[in-house]
Amino acid sequence: AKSEGGGSAHAFTAQMRDSLQRRRLLEVDLRQALALREFTLAYQPQYDIDSRTLVGFEALLRWHHPERGHVSPGEFIPLAEDLGLIVPIGEWALRTACKEAVTWPLPLPISVNISPLQFRNPNIVSMVTSALAAAGLDPNRLELEVTEGALLLNSEPVMNIFRQLKAIGVRFAMDDFGTGYSSLGYLQKFPFDKIKIDQSFVRNLPDSGDGVAIVRAVSALGSSLGLSIIAEGVETEEQLSCIRQNGCLQVQGYLTGRPLAPAAVEALVAAEKAG
Ligand code: C2E
Ligand code: CA
Ligand code: CA
Ligand code: CA
Asked: Source organism's superkingdom (predicted)?
């Protein structure tokens, strides 16, 4: 379709075919990636803005493909969810995060993402309990990040999973807050500990009046409900001072720290400990 120009139907279908083909090839490799030990975790630091102290890390999956190099989670996580592979891959991520966190020089909290498919599985409670025990990690240090897609408003089984994990000391953060349909409903129903303001609301600060209003409203909501609030995706000093001025006390973003390899995390925590 060389001579037909970018906008043609042929170019479009060629593009569709290429991306379908890439998806099929990735699918074959993704099925083997766990056995071939191609995953690692990167840890992104979270800070208290005023004191500049480290308050925790979020564990993020990384896939190092032998030929393609780094494949982004934005591409392989949805694929892993479609294939059901997110259940074993997510379990690997949780177990690994717990094991790595116990080696840190300070007992900081560790946040791990849990996909809806994992959270709907009744085995999640024993899986989390077993990961904590195997690592020897204090359950109070573990925070699970769930999106509202993982929850159901009137489901007793889902509520029970949430309650059982809370009962052993595990904390919960509502991830990507504000991007779903009924964030407030879920917040009222489930005993969350933290709200993560999605980066889509942060991206256009301080120019976006709506963004400012959202950060201010969510921060006020959090403080009246006794929840901590953290803003994601903060890349500039202007965004940082804007979220702070609007009541958000914690930050996670490229400005304050990119996701780090385990060795760099150890060094950062050691430096924090030394003061
Ligand atoms: P998320 O949970 O919302 O994670 C935050 C994403 O924002 C991460 O992307 C992080 O690297 C990125 N980020 C952090 N600060 C900034 C910033 O200042 N600017 C910009 N532009 N981006 C920033 P990443 O690592 O590519 O992960 C993408 C998504 O993949 C995650 O979004 C999460 O939904 C999913 N994911 C990653 N690891 C896991 C996992 O272990 N389990 C599950 N179920 N999902 C995961
Ligand atoms: Ca997350
Ligand atoms: Ca998020
Ligand atoms: Ca997200």
From this structure: Bacteria
